[in-house]
Amino acid sequence: MEEAVIVATARTPIGRAYKGSLIDYRPDDLCGFIVDDLMKKVPELSRSDVDDVIIGAANHSGEQSMNLGRNVAGLAGLPDTVPGTTVNRFCASSLQSIRMAFHAISAGEGHAFVAGGVESVTRTLGVGFSATDMNPRYTDTSRDDFINLMYIPMGLTAENVADKYGVSRADMDEFAKLSQDRAVAAQNNGFFEREITPVTLPNGSVFAKDDGPRAGTTIERLSQLPPVFRPDGRVTAGNACPLNDGAAAVLVLSRSKAAEIGVKPKARIIASAISGLAPEIMGVGPIEAVRKVLALAKMTIGDIDIVELNEAFAAQVLPICRELGISIEDQLNPHGGAIALGHPFGMTGARIMTTLLNDLETTDKTIGLETMCIGGGQGMAMIVERLN
User: Fold this and answer.
1) DSSP labels, 60-83
2) pLDDT at 128
3) pLDDT for 166
4) What radius of gyration, in Å, describes the C-alpha atoms of the chain?
5) Which helix (H) or strand (E) holds 304?
6) Residues 337/311, Cβ–Cβ less than 8 Å
7) E strands along the chain, which residues?
C-alpha cells in the first residue's frame, strides 16, 4: 500500500471578515493564488501530473458556488486535464480534502493531489441558505418526528458545552488571553513568516500578517466583554474565534512519487478519523475523533508531541483537553489558535496542517495531531509524522 506524504504547504494571511485585509479579494481567485504558489514550491512536479484538486469550503454560495475545486484548478494555472472537486464538511472541509487525498493514494488511485480550502465570510456574507430552506424536522421541537437542532447557532453549542462540562467564564477568558499571547509572540518572532505567502491586494498594497492577533490583551478587558449568544451566557467575542477570510493548501504525494521526482517529504500521514455526536454539543466532537485516531495509530496522547486543536471556542477547548489528557502547557497550540488567528471555515483544516508542520520543524519534534469540531455534530482528527 502506498504511503501518503505532504511535500509542501501554503497559506494566505487570515483577514477579518467585513473589515479586514481580504474583503476585496474573490475567494476563488484567492484560492487559485495559493494553489499556484503551492505548485511553485515543488517545481519538480509537472502540473499535468496532478491527479485531482480537492478544495473545501463551508459555504457553497455566491463566489464560492459552482464546482469551486474545478474553478480553482483553472485559476491556479493547472491544465484542463487536471480535474477538481469541492468538499463540504463545514469547519473541517479542507482537513477532509487532505483525508481524501490520503485515502486515494492509499488505495492506489493516484500519486499527486492538491488538497486545500477557502472561505470568504465577507464575500458570501456568511449565508448559504435561508430560514425557509431549513427542514422543519430540525427546527420544530413540537413535531413528533423532530430529530435534533441541526441548525443550532455555533455560539449556542458553546454555551451548551460550557454548561455540560462546568467551564467557567474566568477559565474561558484566561485561555483566550493565552491564545492571543502565543499568537502575538509567534508573529513577533517570525514563526508565521515561514508559512504565510503575502498577498498583493487589488489596491496594490501587500498583506503579509494575520489580522487577528491582539497585542496587549488583558484579562480585565476580556472580562468586560458582554456575552453574545445568551444574556446569562459565558461566550463572548473575546473567548471565541472571529469571522474570517483566507485560503490554504497542501500538496500530498505518494511516497514513491516523491522519491521519483526527488522531493523530500515534510511529513507522512499516519491515520485519520471522524466521529459524530449531538449537534447541540458539537464543540466536543474531537474527543471521540481523537480516541479513534489514536487507536488506529496504536498510540496514546502521550505519544503526541504537538496537538493543533481548532479553537472555535474556549468553552470547548478546555473540556477536550481535560477529557483527553492534552497538556495545554506542553502540547497544545504552541503558537496560538483560532481565537487569536481566526477561523475561515473552509481554509482552517489546511491552515492548521500548515501550522502543525511548522510547529514540528520549529521545535524539532516528530508526531503531530490535528483535530477539529464540526458544525452539525462531528469531530475529525489526523496524525502525521515529521520526516525532515
Assistant:
1) -SGGG-S-HHHHHHHHTT--TTS-
2) 83
3) 98
4) 20
5) none
6) yes
7) 4-11, 15-16, 52-56, 84-87, 112-120, 199-200, 206-207, 244-254, 267-276, 306-309, 367-374, 378-386
